[in-house]
Write a structure and sequence with these properties.
mainly alpha, three-stranded antiparallel β-sheet, 24 helices, 3 strands
Length: 495
């Protein structure tokens, strides 16, 4: 079976089907995008269903070219088989969250974080706390619906413009969503681009950290303008009391994070690092929090659950579990199957050649990838499709100009994960607007990370900075900001 899969890993169409023209290839891709757009915007249908409908249409168009369903099925199965390691990481995220909540790890982050707030430091501390929270849980929505709601109330009591507070929360929440190894988008981007998780994160650090520091400096400046008035701390005190009453917030609760981060820094396989963190969380939950083994297994599968806590803290405690990732998993399977057909039949080759045939330098290629991801995000209102499709579409083009695939995965996140939060009709943009009661375009100027990061990435590209190349031997070649060249051989970065 494996040998059959290998036979399908080709650029040109395989089997009795005809080679698609550029026009027909573009029509197939646009058909999928239009169906998804109509489903999301007009008919308000779930993304998974619209994506599945689009997949069916592309299958029928491929049948018109003379391809047998068995051939199309093989294209889909091969792509699923190729990306399954990343898919395993994706579904494991839910177990990490369930384990860490039951261990008191995430509650401890909220507890000690809220104790650090002062009027002058509200905005920068809020940014940092939202960043830490989103890094820990891997979700911008979960962070926004918990800490975000709390910060919106505190900001209002301090007389801060709600748009500024909302922008700060979005920046912090999206930072973790983009950078966390347990975030679905962080795992989907290397999945689509054809690289590994840690190479992807390493690449993103080069452009994200400078942008984040600029964002932090901005909110420090804005915080200095906040009047030193007494904030209403009643809500915070209630949350702190609930956390104290329901969790043992000792130093032991931080062990799962220490284990995961340590193994990640040591460049262990992501699954090993994640499941080690899960196991550490299970031990802490049993011996520190007093949870039963049967309860732990329930939390790992269905998420943590607790009653009688403050409504603002309930959303961050009652979540997680493997089952919570099934929606993302199902969407990923559909889009990955679509990508397999687009590549196997030859649609992508025709489109890539047309888009990139006149691009022979790295910087313009990076611009093209970022803009494409933004376009797909705007059309579909969904960052997942943009990440996966852009990664698949530009893979061979990046190889041609000598850029490492980790640069492509970075572009996908900059044009997808970040951009989706500032598109009013997109899923994240609409969610944040409804949650905060602030229009997307109102918090847009203050969501600095979302629109500045792509610009920084483009600027660095034209300056020859923050780039990673591949030489003919497969070595990664990158230059530091001080001009020194660093070469990494395949055996040094392979897991």
């Amino acid at each position: 079976m494996k040998e059959d899969f290998k036979k399908t890993e080709v650029d040109l169409p395989v089997g009795g089907g005809r080679t698609p023209s550029f026009a027909f290839s573009l029509a197939a891709c646009l058909a999928f995008l239009i169906i998804v757009c109509l489903g999301l915007i007009v008919f308000k249908v779930d993304t998974v269903i619209t994506a599945l409908t689009g997949l069916v249409v592309v299958v029928l168009m491929s049948k018109y070219l003379g391809y047998k369903f068995a051939e199309l099925e093989k294209f889909m199965l091969y792509n699923i088989w190729r990306t399954m390691p990343a898919m395993l990481i994706l579904i494991s995220v839910g177990a990490v969250v369930g384990s860490w909540i039951s261990a008191g790890t995430i509650p401890a982050l909220v507890y000690y974080g809220l104790k650090c707030i002062t009027p002058a430091l509200f905005l920068p501390v809020g940014l940092i706390l939202c960043s830490i929270m989103s890094m820990a849980v891997g979700t911008s929505w979960g962070t926004a619906s918990t800490l975000g709601i709390v910060f919106m109330g505190i900001g209002a009591s301090l007389g801060i413009n709600p748009a500024v507070t909302a922008g700060m929360i979005v920046c912090g929440a999206l930072f973790g969503d983009k950078m966390s190894p347990i975030s679905d988008s962080t795992n989907l981007a290397p999945l689509g681009a054809g690289t590994d998780l840690w190479s992807h994160i390493h690449s993103m650090l080069k452009t994200t950290i400078p942008t984040y520091l600029i964002t932090l400096a901005f909110f420090i400046f804005m915080g200095l303008r906040v009047k030193d008035t007494a904030a209403d701390m009643e809500t915070i005190n209630l949350i702190l009391s609930d956390l104290e009453a329901n969790f043992n917030l000792s130093v032991w609760t931080i062990i799962p994070i220490i284990v995961t981060v340590t193994l990640s820094v040591m460049r262990w396989h992501p699954l090993v690092a994640m499941y080690s963190g899960i196991f550490a969380g299970v031990l802490v939950a049993i011996f520190v929090q007093g949870e039963s083994i049967s309860s732990i297994f329930t939390y790992l599968n269905y998420g943590f659950s607790i009653d009688g806590v403050n409504e603002m803290i309930a959303p961050i405690l009652n979540r997680g579990g493997l089952q919570s990732m099934m929606w993302t998993f199902s969407l990923a399977i559909i889009v990955i199957s679509l990508a397999g057909i687009l590549q196997g039949v030859g649609y992508l080759n025709a489109i890539v050649i047309a888009i990139t045939k006149k691009i022979h330098k790295p910087a313009p290629m990076i611009v093209a990838a970022i803009i494409t991801a933004m376009f797909v995000t705007m059309v579909t209102g969904d960052s997942y499709s943009a990440i996966l499709l852009t990664g698949t579409l530009f893979g061979e083009a990046f190889d041609r100009v000598g850029l490492d695939r980790s640069i492509l995965s970075r572009c996908c996140e900059e044009g997808g994960t970040l951009f989706v939060a500032i598109v009013p009709w997109a899923t994240s943009g609409a969610y944040f607007t409804k949650l905060f009661g602030v229009a997307t375009m109102a918090y847009f100027p203050y969501a600095i990370l979302c629109w500045l990061n792509p610009l920084v990435s483009i600027a660095f590209a034209f300056c020859g900075k923050a780039l990673i190349f591949r030489d003919k031997d497969g070595n990664k070649v990158e230059k530091t900001f001080f001009g020194k060249e660093k070469i990494t051989k395949p055996e040094d970065y392979a897991f």
